[in-house]
Amino acid sequence: MSEAQITDWLASQKQAMIDLLRDVVNIDSGSYDKEGVDAVGARFERHFAEHGIPFRRESDANFGDAIHADVAKPGSNEKPVLLMGHRDTVFGKGEAGRRPFTIKDGRAYGPGVADMKSGLVMNVFVATAFHKFGGSPHPIKLLITSDEEIGSPSSRPVIEREGRAARAVFNSEPGRPTGNVVTGRKGGIFMHFAITGKAAHSGANFAAGVSAIGELAHKIVQIHALTDLDKGITLNVGLVSGGQSVNTTAPYAEGQIDLRYVEPADRARIMAAIEKIIATSYVPGTSATLTIKGEFVPVVQSADSKALFESYQAAARQVGLTTLQGEFSGGCADSGFTAAVGTPTICGLGPVGGLAHTPEEYLEIDSIVPRAQALALAILRG
After folding, report:
1. How much is the pTM?
2. Which superkingdom heads the taxonomic lineage of this protein's source (predicted)?
3. Could you report the per-residue pLDDT of 155-180, keeping only the tens digit for each?
């Protein structure tokens, strides 16, 4: 097996990659749509079966199953390289029918085309190349998860387990619009808080009421005040609801909080401040509860992760990606879980795209092959 065999074969598979990408983009796979997420998984399993690659499902009752596939030389007991990614999207049922996969002016469009079904297709074809030509210097493990867009409630323990067992992790989230990869990310916590007040007629019996919405307003102001842009800490109450009618003091209100932070040490301090705000009654007679709904941890570049990036960067230069750099992202990803367990990790290795989570999401079609080649060369030299 030579580097040229691998890179030439990947170049020859551009249309096959596009065809597989079309198939999986045209299947709705919102995070809570287990049937759809598993249907996308089945399409990848069909590819593995057609190419003789061993695979298995790790089932989950509530979310999509985790898909595992392995490419290894017989008898190898070395730690594998982990190629990882998620197949769920933020889009609801019917979106794929409304906006099916299309290509126009060198860009592909459709729900999840960049984030991150193209990255999964790339991972699958890189692994297939090594399977076809006799295996890589180290075993390759593919992990295709199901619920990243909601904080990986079922996949996190799977990711952490596989991350601990790996020698290196490549997470193929979309390449940045700049063409860069991601070497650092914020951590994020997604929370829900619920406030109980007391209903009363707001005209005839106002004094007897206790407004949960009034309490909500106080809490939002206090929570937003925790934002510290210089430290990369942001708080956003992005969803609110509550009340019974316009002429009733609100007996109930709720909100959802998005916390982002850079330094792992800031988590405990900010969470303690949020918990204090939730426990404080600014409107006497109200009470409140706080629930964490999902959480990501930061990607902090270790010395080993820096060395992994430099090796990848050298491989990328060989296939013409001469300006590729590492970039920090305020977004969260599953790569934080593998970085946190101490495994060298880089993210954003997928084909280049942008405007994720919007109807305008796009993928640069001509980035698919060189990004696949760069990943393959990085694995060969790892």
Report:
1. 0.91
2. Bacteria
3. 999 999 999 999 999 999 999 999 99
